[in-house]
Amino acid sequence: MNNFYDSQKTNVIFGKDTHKTVGEEIKKYGNRCLIVHDGGSYLTKILEDVRASLDASGISYYELGDVKPNPRLSYCKECIEKVHQDPVDFILAVGGGSVMDTAKFIAVQANMKESLFVNRDIFTPDPVIPHGVISTLGGTGSEQSLCAMVVDDSLEVPEKVGLYNLGFFFDFAIINPEFAYTLPPKMMACGAMDIMSHCWEVYFAPINGNEIMEGYFEAIVKAVLKEGLVAKEEPTNYDARANLNLAAIMAMSNTKPAAGEMGDWVCHHMENPITVTFKRTHGEILSIITDAWVKYAWKSNPAKFVRWAVNCMGARLYDNQEDTVMEGLRNLEDWQKRMGLPTRLSDIGIKAEDCKICAENAMKISGTGKAGAYSGYDVDMVMEVYKLAE
Q: Which of 193, 224, 240, 295 has the CB geometry, 3.0–4.6 Å to 230, for a possible disulfide?
């Protein structure tokens, strides 16, 4: 097992009507707040409750509500300029992963002299604006992580960049599973797929001597497979929604679940450029890439893929390892289809031959010049996965 440092800064406030206490929480930090959201109609009642809570606590506020999926650096800069003109004591994100990451970036970058894209030091040298979130979609796990994904749209070919900084940790995360009741089924499915992918990016990394953590990830995946289907059939099933929300933060709370192993992230590195280039949803592209990656990668670690097929995907244990792995993959594809997720690039009108620039961009995301911290895929290897995904 690796050495690791575990600091869980974020206070998680979980359950029904918890968002109505947000004014009391923010009052601990000051009297002026910026609310960041995406302007979606699904937020109407939530924002009404938030404003009422802030008003009751004597907190003044203003809102910036134009966050787009895969948050853009240009918009983050506009928000920071507004914060410089109208300073705040607290930044509140109300929304899903893109909104959370936008708020994190503003909170840390606002007082930094250097760009976070240049200064990659995980310890922030300048004061961070206190920030929290009312989460409306579980999946990314951004509620309790030190990561923010931001698209550098200043480039000719925009790139989605993973930034890591201890300052990104929210001071609190309010999670009310009831907010997911009205989510479009596809968004819920994409969030569920993202949770499982977060588990597998670490699960398939070379974790040695850590049976507890391997079992931990298997348990999360099995819960997501079950509760995702329940939530699809029964949108107002509170326990199903609550389990999905809990799974999201359990899968992505950094060093704690991985016991010091940050994972490979090869599927995310291959997925991110396609998502940005073709303006798709993160979870749907992960669905496609994960299936193709299993076909491509299983022979490199057959024992682990067999364990995955049996313990995560409910496959039978055959004498032939490939039979076991492929049954596990078929079970995954069956679940994806039941959830309304695509399993092939052709399902969403994309050809592998159109993804060459995506393969090249996949080399940049990890910072190592290859896709995957351990896999080390080059452009040709990524293109092989894309071809299998077609």
A: 240
**pLDDT tens per residue, range 263-306:** 899 999 999 999 999 999 999 999 999 999 999 999 999 999 99
Instruction: Provide long-range contacts, Cβ within 8 A and 24+ apart, for 123-128.
Output: 123/165, 123/166, 124/165, 124/166, 124/167, 128/167
**pTM (2 decimals)?**
0.90
Task: Delimit the domains of the chain by residue range.
Answer: 11-179, 185-389
CB 387 within 8 A of CB 346: no
Q: Tens of pLDDT along 360-380?
A: 999 988 778 999 989 999 999
CATH 1.20.1090.10 fits domain 185-389: yes
11-179: CATH class = alpha beta
d(CA 87, CA 92): 14
The pLDDT of residue 295: 98
In angstroms, the CA 166 to CA 170 distance is 10
Place of tokens 């990451």: 101
